């Protein structure tokens, strides 16, 4: 049963990773037209809508990767606390609620409610990043809920890289959230100040995206090779 369960989880994990990496590339390319002042505002907004629709799949992958990793870690024996069925179910319920919040923010993205949901989710990410870093560091020290010894340190290292991607993701989310606010101003007419802010933030986001992809590739490498 564990072999079949692990195979299923690994399959979903791979799909989530593919949507994450591919979705981020799609948003990256679409952003060029979002910031292109030579295009009409309507055309730019169409590209922004495309970016949001691509990004929701990437965000779905991001949210699912951590509980999938924890569930597989339970099977490997790295997360003994999840052997308790009630704890395992609670863990999945928490992340499914987080996923529901992510989709609610997407559906309401053009409204003030959507922006508030997004900001609430960002606060949740701050707490989650701190917890993941704590779990990984205590695993290295041989304490905490994650059980890791020599030969299995790839698991907490993978968690640290994931936490790092969440940090970068927060910045990228801030940039995309600002699109809605900036385009509300641009709808009233050309605004060089807002256009300059848009281009500056997108430029910074593109640099962050390259680091993001390197870290995602590192996570894939550790999961595939389990080198140490």
Following the backbone from N to C, one meets helices and strands in this order, namely HHHHHH
Q: Any idea what the radius of gyration is?
A: 19 Å
Percent helix range: over 70%
Question: How many independent structural domains?
Answer: 1
Main structural class: mainly alpha
Strand composition percent = under 5%
- Count of runs of 4 or more consecutive helical residues: 6
Given as residue ranges, the uncertain stretches (5+ residues, pLDDT < 50) are none
Number of DSSP E strands: 0
Overall geometry:
elongated
- Our measurement of the CA-to-CA distance between the termini, rounded to an integer number of angstroms, reads 27 Å
The whole-number mean of residue pLDDT values reads 88
The biggest sheet, with number of strands, parallel, antiparallel or mixed sense and barrel status, is: none
């Amino acid at each position: 049963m564990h072999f079949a369960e692990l195979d299923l989880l690994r399959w979903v994990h791979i799909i989530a990773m593919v949507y994450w990496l591919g979705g981020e590339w799609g948003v990256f390319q679409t952003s060029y037209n979002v910031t292109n002042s030579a295009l009409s505002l309507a055309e730019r907004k169409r590209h922004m809508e495309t970016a949001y629709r691509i990004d929701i799949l990437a965000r779905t992958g991001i949210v699912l990767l951590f509980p999938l990793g924890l569930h597989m870690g339970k099977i490997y024996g790295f997360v003994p606390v999840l052997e308790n069925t009630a704890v395992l179910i609670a863990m999945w319920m928490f992340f499914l609620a987080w996923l529901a919040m992510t989709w609610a923010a997407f559906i309401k993205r053009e409204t003030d409610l959507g922006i508030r949901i997004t900001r609430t989710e960002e606060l949740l990410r701050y707490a989650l990043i701190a917890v993941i870093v704590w779990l990984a560091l205590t695993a290295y020290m041989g304490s905490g809920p994650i059980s890791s010894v020599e030969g299995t340190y790839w698991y907490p290292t993978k968690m640290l890289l994931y936490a790092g991607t969440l940090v970068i993701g927060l910045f990228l989310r801030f940039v995309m959230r600002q699109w809605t606010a900036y385009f509300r101003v641009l709808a009233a007419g050309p605004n060089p100040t807002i256009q300059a802010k848009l281009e500056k933030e997108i430029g910074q986001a593109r640099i962050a995206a390259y680091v993001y992809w390197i870290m995602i590739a590192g996570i894939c490498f550790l999961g595939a090779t389990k080198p140490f």
